[in-house]
Amino acid sequence: MLENISWGNFLLCVAGLSLLYYGYIVVRYFRGDLIKYLRHRGNPKPDRVTIELSDEEYFELFEELQNVIRDVEVEILPQSESKEDFLENVRHRLEHFRGKSVPIFHRTLAAHLVTLTQDKPWDMNETGLQEFLAGL
Question: How far is Cα 124 from Cα 116, in angstroms, rounded to an integer?
């Protein structure tokens, strides 16, 4: 009976079974990584964004960032009834903020917004706010 099976068919069968086995392992134990890979394979994001600013530009944008944080604390937060209302008001305030393209300003602003909204019953986290700010 074994004489009727050619080496080609045997190797094809072994390769197919190996493919099924390793496919199962990937799906079973690396599902999250696989989904992340499949979602981002068409549009790879760079690991770092480099933006060169002169000292004068940096200090202007930093001062503008301080004004945004002050406006959020003094004007927007007291007037906001819900998380959605708050984020919409923040989005409106940031429409003309020239530092939107600077990643460190995203992180700084997200950290301040989390700190400012600690007393509110809203679920705000820094990662979610950074994604919100990146989408502006």
Answer: 10
Amino acid at 73: E
Alpha carbon dihedral 109, 115, 118, 121, in 10-degree steps, equals 0
Q: Where do the domains of the chain lie? A: 2-40, 55-134
Q: What pLDDT was estimated at residue 67? A: 92
Q: How far apart are CA 63 and CA 99, in angstroms?
A: 10
Dihedral angle over CA of 90, 96, 97, 101, nearest 10:
100
Rounded average pLDDT over 20-26? 94
Question: What are 96-110's pLDDT values in tens digits?
Answer: 888 877 888 888 888
Contact 60, 69 (CB under 8 A): no
